[in-house]
Amino acid sequence: SAVISQKPSRDICQRGTSLTIQCQVDSQVTMMFWYRQQPGQSLTLIATANQGSEATYESGFVIDKFPISRPNLTFSTLTVSNMSPEDSSIYLCSVEDSSYNEQFFGPGTRLTVL
Amino acid sequence: QKEVEQDPGPLSVPEGAIVSLNCTYSNSAFQYFMWYRQYSRKGPELLMYTYSSGNKEDGRFTAQVDKSSKYISLFIRDSQPSDSATYLCAMNTGFQKLVFGTGTRLLVSP
Known about the structure:
Largest sheet of chain A: 7 strands, mixed
Largest interface: A-B, 22 and 24 residues
Order of helices and strands of chain A: EEEEEEEEEEE
Structural class of chain B: mainly beta
Oligomer: heterodimer
Distance between the termini of chain B: 37 Å
């Protein structure tokens, strides 16, 4: 399975600011995903990021609020823009094993917005 | 109605017990079923992966899928305190986005 790292592991931010979360994979992958996990809720897919194309956003998530970059096959960033306390959550990136339809997750970024 | 329903627990059992974790779903097109284990302050870890109906066993863990009832289960034999975690079921139609349950928190006491 792929080894995935995320930076930062946690952060406390002020309302109105932006935070960029980085996701690094130890092997080349086609599909990377960004999820949000709010307390007591299931994982919610924010967007799918494929290298060389625009990210595909799920209903309820927009590019202006969650811009995503995917410059190569091992790296992606998610920015949470103009943050409010409602954005406090764990943000997770995951990658898919293209052969086996298996998804592997990074350790997550715990974001608190004051 | 949610696409995937999972009892949030917590489920408390003594060490050595057999644990049964379950999910129900509504989309009959789901064919791939996964169980993830998530320790506190960690990312989800893929535990079991099953295609279509039937059982799959891996050590102390058995995953069971009953597509006719739209019901999946994860059994843990001889449960250990180290099994204490949140268990998330997930499923999809194949190479599409995963749909997750809310997770069941399991507590195994020594």
